[in-house]
Amino acid sequence: MRIGKTVLTLLTFAALAAASLTIPASPGDSAGNQGSTTTLQEWEQHSQPQGGLSAKASARLHSEIESILRRPEFRISRLTREREAPAWLRWLRDKWTKFRQALAALSWLPAGASRWFLPAISILLGLALLYMVYRVARESLLGGHGGAGEVARRQATPKELLQQASASAERADYTEAIRLIFTATLLLLFPREAPRTPTRTLVYKLKAKSAALADDLMGLNGLFEVHYYGNKPASASGYQQALTISSHITKTMSGGSGESAS
Question: Is 28 within 8 Å of 35 (Cβ atoms)?
């Protein structure tokens, strides 16, 4: 509303100036050609003798217009001024544009399919991300992996779990073998708390009793996470490393250096 009033004021000034001034055209040449439109300087020279605005009135008019244009609504705010995007955002935007162009150029897609293909891919990627977050949260927050198979493992003894780990290693399923060793070690250290307590909490509780046992458990936990959650292929050497750590924890406990946190 305020800007509209300002524009109306400017239009009023322009109308008054146009009504009080007669802008002469330049005279034609000797051949009778029509003169061209006068310049601003010629207009100012002809305006005064014909009873137009005086120099003082013209200066006052210009001053009033300048004062109007200096009002806040005509200024560009620093907060709203467009800034150059950071380099990483420009790079991401460029890659996204190229991806969309490449997607639109796919010859095997039917006409118009690229419009729904891209949202479909985005939804699938989002679901995959949610599943990964769920897997991590299930271990970190709930303290277990869930599922009927895992419940059966939780009900087994550490010795039985180590036997299952050996069988998995014979099938070259070293990731599952490391997982079983890790579960057996947790049940050995915390027979009552392991099924429902987050691993980090168990490590902190164990550290208060034995720093050596806590360090071993953290090492075994890191080995388990990098292969199970990180999807890094496990090898026979990784399995042997996990077995060595578990055996060291068992010997430390039987030697009296650490106690179960149950």
Answer: yes
pLDDT in tens, 47-74: 554 555 677 777 888 888 888 777 766 6
**What percentage of residues in the chain have a pLDDT greater than 70?**
58
pLDDT tens-digit readout, 219-261: 898 888 888 888 888 899 999 999 999 999 888 877 654 444 4
Determine the Cα angle at 46 with ends 45 and 52, to 5°: 105
Are 165 and 247 in the same domain?
A: yes
Q: What is the CATH number of the domain that holds 202?
A: 1.20.120
> Alpha helix (H) ranges present in the chain?
2-20, 40-47, 55-69, 87-104, 114-140, 148-155, 158-170, 174-189, 199-209, 211-228, 236-254
CB atoms within 10 A of CB 184: 24
Residue 29 has pLDDT above 60, yes or no: no
Tokens of 44: 């100012």
Q: Give Cα separations from 123 to 90, 118, 137, 141, 185 (angstroms).
A: 24, 9, 21, 26, 39
